[in-house]
Amino acid sequence: MTARILDGKAVGARLRAGLGERVAGLSFRPGLRVVRVGDDPASVVYVRSKDRAAKEAGFDSETILLPEDVPESELLATVRRLNADPAVDGILVQLPLPKHIDPQKVLEAVDPAKDVDGFHPVNAGRLAAGLPGLVPCTPKGVMHLLAEAGVKLSGARAVVLGRSAIVGRPMAALLLAADATVTMLHSRSRDIAEECRRAEVLVAAVGRAGIVRGDWIAPGAVVVDVGINRTAEGKLTGDVEFEAARERAGWITPVPGGVGPMTIACLLENTLEAALARRGRAELEPNGGVAEAHATPEQSYGHGPGLA
Ligand SMILES: Nc1nc(=O)c2c([nH]1)NC[C@@H]1CN(c3ccc(C(=O)N[C@@H](CCC(=O)O)C(=O)O)cc3)C=[N+]21
């Protein structure tokens, strides 16, 4: 079998076009502010893509540039100014930050209602608890791709490789909310290859080129590669041995052109959701509204025996 390609570039473009139509129908422009500190070359590229995508879809987007040696206090003051600015619906502080700045302190300074990255502990906690909130863009984008492939997640064996706060953990929470049976694998896990071979849905978010071997893929599995690694020759490559995995998988995301473009589309989706919620025009949904998690009786607190 040769896998079908889950084309994040195309799906992301469609999602952005739909958001553009919704924004065009509003009496205001949702405001996005991306803060970039210093000139990390990857950050320069990513932040430019975000700004361009936002403007194309009709958002009021501005990038705020601060010097590499900006004091932490000044970055925090910038975030507070954006929190207080009514024209601003979404705030994103691009990571990584210079070493003299504590990223956690900065992420926690962002108003959770404007936290379009979904990185504030309030939003992370709400996702973990199955409550409405802003959901991190990359795992949200993965859920869109799985929906696009028509994957039935309820009861499916899903494996998430990697337990980062920005991808692995929220990814597992979203899959669980969609009623998948979720296994998280990480640096201390045993029998990783065997665990992966049991996966009907495999999400790789480690950040090591080719760490997922082709023979770890179950026949017909849906393989989502979140890794973005740069080879010695400067080419982008994922965490999955793409060519070998493609021979076994049912669906697979390429790198580039897979999850990356979905991340940017979901940033715009979150900004629109935050803008509507802040104006009382819509409620935030559990799981970013991507996966329709249906609370089964045994999941409700205190209702008799059963697995939760
Ligand atoms: N506060 C914060 N939020 C983020 O969401 C965030 C961040 N910091 N820091 C860095 C990572 C990385 N990230 C990507 C977004 C788009 C692509 C993307 O569109 N990639 C293209 C290729 C881009 C290229 O050619 O370099 C693709 O995969 O096809 C990749 C990576 C967001 N991040």
TrEMBL record:
Gene Ontology molecular function: any one: methylenetetrahydrofolate dehydrogenase (NADP+) activity
Domain Tetrahydrofolate dehydrogenase/cyclohydrolase NAD(P)-binding: 136-276
EC number assigned by the record: 1.5.1.5, 3.5.4.9
Pathway: One-carbon metabolism; tetrahydrofolate interconversion
Domain of life, per lineage: Bacteria
Subunit structure: Homodimer.
Function as written in the Swiss-Prot or TrEMBL entry: Catalyzes the oxidation of 5,10-methylenetetrahydrofolate to 5,10-methenyltetrahydrofolate and then the hydrolysis of 5,10-methenyltetrahydrofolate to 10-formyltetrahydrofolate.
Name of this chain's protein: Bifunctional protein FolD
